[in-house]
Specification:
The two termini are 17 Å apart. Helix 1 packs antiparallel against helix 4 (118-163), helix 2 packs antiparallel against helix 3 and helix 3 packs across helix 4. The chain has 164 residues and is mainly alpha-helical. It has helices at 2-35, 41-74, 79-110, 118-163.
C-alpha cells in the first residue's frame, strides 16, 4: 500500500519533468525556425503554448516540490542532501529570474510582434535549458529517490500505528 501511495505521490512530479524536457526541446526547435525567418501561425501558436506551460504548470511544479518534496529531505541529518536541496531551491529562483526574461519575448512572438531579438532570445533560452536540465538531473538522481523513500517510510509508520 505504501509503495503504491509513494508512486502516486511522485508520478505527477515525474511526468511534469518529462513535459518540461519536451518543452525545452520545443524551445530549441522554435529558435531554429525563428532564426530561419519563419513567422507562421504555427510558430506563434507554439510560442504561446510554451510560454503558458512554463509560466503556469512549471511554476506550480516548483511550488509543489518546495512544499511536498524538499521539507522532508531538509530535515535529514545528511549534509550532502541538505546542500543539494539548498542548491535546488536557489535553482528555482534562478529559473524564475531567467524565465522572466524569456516569457515576454515568447508572448510577443505569439502575438506576432517583431521586436524580439533572436540572438537575445537564444542566449536566454540557452541559459534556461542548462538551468532546467541540471536541476532535473539533480532532483531525479539524488533528491526524488530520497524523498520517495522517506515518504514510503512515513506511510508505513502511519499504517503500523493505525493497525496497532
Amino acid at each position: 500500500m505504501a509503495d503504491a501511495a509513494t508512486k502516486n505521490q511522485f508520478s505527477a512530479l515525474d511526468l511534469c519533468h518529462q513535459h518540461i524536457q519536451q518543452y525545452l526541446a520545443e524551445l530549441g526547435t522554435l529558435l531554429v525556425q525563428l532564426r530561419a525567418g519563419e513567422d507562421s501561425p504555427h510558430l506563434r501558436q507554439r510560442a504561446g503554448i510554451i510560454e503558458a506551460f512554463f509560466s503556469d504548470t512549471a511554476r506550480r511544479h516548483h511550488v509543489e516540490e518546495e512544499h511536498k518534496v524538499f521539507p522532508a529531505v531538509l530535515a535529514s541529518d545528511n549534509a550532502e542532501l541538505v546542500r543539494a536541496v539548498s542548491t535546488l531551491q536557489q535553482d528555482h529562483l534562478w529559473i524564475e529570474l531567467n524565465w522572466s526574461e524569456i516569457a515576454p519575448m515568447l508572448r510577443a512572438l505569439a502575438q506576432g510582434e517583431d521586436w524580439v531579438d533572436p540572438a537575445e532570445l537564444q542566449h536566454a533560452i540557452d541559459v534556461f535549458v542548462a538551468l532546467c536540465s541540471d536541476h532535473i538531473a539533480l532532483e531525479e538522481a539524488l533528491i526524488y529517490p530520497e524523498a520517495k523513500q522517506r515518504f514510503a517510510q512515513e506511510l508505513a509508520g502511519r499504517a503500523r500505528r493505525l493497525s496497532a
